[in-house]
């Protein structure tokens, strides 16, 4: 590793971003660290730094829905490893994150030394997990995997619109938030439905709910 290493930190809490940055510099002393406080900012940073070595991504970003941030970043930038960072430590959450393409999972309760160790391991090409999950069944079904692939084909603006749909916003409200016309939002919704292979915004929201992480899958059914 050398001074050319780049690591992106995406977390909406400034204090924890600072802690992650400290851990990064323990693991990779001369790395360039780029910080983002929203998924959109993380996406822009990844677009700018396509040669980044690692993304540390908070599982609960304000403009994402559960695993959607992970799925979208992995789809847009498959060459950059993503490590999830979360206050959730349930094995089913960790398993699902790995099934969706994460290279590791770091609990926010971990010490700086453990976080640095995790970063070092992933930078060396290994996976890092806080617990053994080999004995768990895969959490991602074929249907969920197909949806994840489709989600990754959305444009950044279409992704933002979909996330707003999951919040229950109407086209008019989304248009106001994004400062575009309602006709533009209608066009985005039409494109989203086509790409996701669904026939209504309700079906799109239900499909996106597969990416929630607060409860085991069995509780969401």
From TrEMBL:
Residues 6-123 form the Response regulatory domain. Keywords: DNA-binding, Phosphoprotein. The keyword Signal does not apply. The keyword DNA-binding applies. Residues 147-212 form the HTH luxR-type domain. InterPro entries: CheY-like_superfamily, EvgA-like, NreC/VraR/RcsB-like_REC, Sig_transdc_resp-reg_C-effctor, Sig_transdc_resp-reg_receiver, Tscrpt_reg_LuxR_C. The modification 4-aspartylphosphate is found at residue 58. This is LuxR family transcriptional regulator. It comes from Pokkaliibacter plantistimulans. The lineage of its organism: Bacteria, Pseudomonadati, Pseudomonadota, Gammaproteobacteria, Oceanospirillales.
């Amino acid at each position: 590793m050398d001074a050319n290493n780049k690591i992106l930190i995406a977390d909406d809490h400034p204090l924890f971003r600072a802690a992650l940055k400290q851990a990064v510099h323990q693991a990779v002393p001369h790395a360039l660290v780029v910080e983002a406080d929203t998924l959109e900012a993380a996406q822009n940073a990844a677009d700018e730094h396509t040669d980044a070595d690692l993304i540390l991504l908070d599982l609960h970003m304000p403009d994402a829905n559960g695993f959607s941030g992970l799925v979208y970043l992995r789809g847009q930038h498959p060459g950059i490893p993503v490590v999830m960072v979360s206050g959730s430590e349930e094995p089913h959450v960790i398993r699902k994150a790995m099934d969706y393409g994460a290279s590791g999972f770091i609990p926010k309760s971990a010490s700086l030394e453990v976080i640095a160790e995790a970063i070092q391991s992933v930078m060396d090409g290994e996976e890092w997990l806080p617990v053994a999950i080999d004995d768990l069944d895969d959490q991602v079904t074929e249907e969920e995997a197909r949806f994840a692939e489709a989600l990754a084909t959305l444009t950044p603006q279409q992704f933002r619109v979909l996330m707003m749909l999951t919040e229950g916003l109407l086209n008019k409200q989304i248009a106001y938030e994004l400062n575009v016309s309602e006709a533009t939002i209608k066009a985005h919704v039409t494109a989203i439905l086509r790409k996701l292979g669904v026939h209504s915004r309700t079906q799109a929201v239900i499909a996106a709910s597969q990416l929630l992480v607060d409860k085991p899958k069995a509780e969401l059914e």
